[in-house]
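Box 3.1. Reading complex inputs
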Amino acid sequence: MSPSMKLYSHAVAPNPRRVRIFAAEKGIELVLEDVDILAGQNRTPEFLAKNSSGGVPVLELDDGSCLSESVAICRYLEGLYPELNLLGRDLREQAEIERWNRRMELELFAAIGRTVQHTSSIFQGRFKQFPEYGETQRALVYQRLERMGRELVGHEFVASDRFTIADITALVAIDIGGRLADIKIPPELTHLIHWHETVSTRPSAAA
Amino acid sequence: MSPSMKLYSHAVAPNPRRVRIFAAEKGIELVLEDVDILAGQNRTPEFLAKNSSGGVPVLELDDGSCLSESVAICRYLEGLYPELNLLGRDLREQAEIERWNRRMELELFAAIGRTVQHTSSIFQGRFKQFPEYGETQRALVYQRLERMGRELVGHEFVASDRFTIADITALVAIDIGGRLADIKIPPELTHLIHWHETVSTRPSAAA
């Protein structure tokens, strides 16, 4: 890989962290360029030309073209750098890991996102918040953490017997929920607590 | 493929339709078994053993194991039946199609889903609806349809110069929004209207 491969990123936002952890697990060094999304730097014509949705992360390839959406970027990196394998070795495993990654994303990460959006002061004045709705989403998050805790009984990791993209998605989701919406893993969910400690102590978690 | 490959499905729900269209484009015949989700048939212990989230669709494989999450099922079918290609031929195209499929899913489909959940009588009494929040999501849907219309200028399809999974996701999203939340493509979005007519007249759309 050319050292010029650049990731438009943000220090706190969870989706750029997903890609940074994914790349770190593979030993890929990306040139990070921080985009100040709270100041609207992702809404400039220059940035919208890279990604018309205005989201980060965006990966700028050697040919100058840009790829967005965190999981699409991860799949591209996996194709270039197959090891450490994070998306599955054969078709059945790939499908199973995608299943669990989507469960973590659509059920857990999305519910945490809605909780943050509707209850955190960071979004006040940015759009209309519905705090009461946000609290229903917080309750949903705790239901889903409880289920996740049950599903981890007898399993070290979310999707497989090894660390995969599904663990990354769940980690960034839970961590941003803790940071911006005071979501904490209940101490009685011992399997989930253990999983969180395990994945948090991997060096990639600092990426 | 064994003719015993079964898809747990639902006639109206959009995610099973995604997989049915995907399979129809490939000429794969699935044995459909309807799950009455409105009557809670997906919450029985038998069904939860197939998919602990209770969602449909679920693909039951020849070995009796089950795969859930529509896009994971699609990826598995693509691996077994590479043609008609719907997920991309090379790595760069695969990443780009995944990018657009996620855009259609996370921005359009999800916003339509929240509009339906919070404004449609079909969900009344099933959980607490926030109609005012639902209307903000409806407004978001129309913003995203408008952007989608702009992005289709000069493009016949959403992600590529040919029909892909991203078109399927957008089609099922828009159609369920029309059916349950009175979402209509504004007539001035001529490129989007044309796209919708094109994809709706493919035989697979009836699947």
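In summary: Chain B touches chain A through 31 residues (CB under 8 Å).
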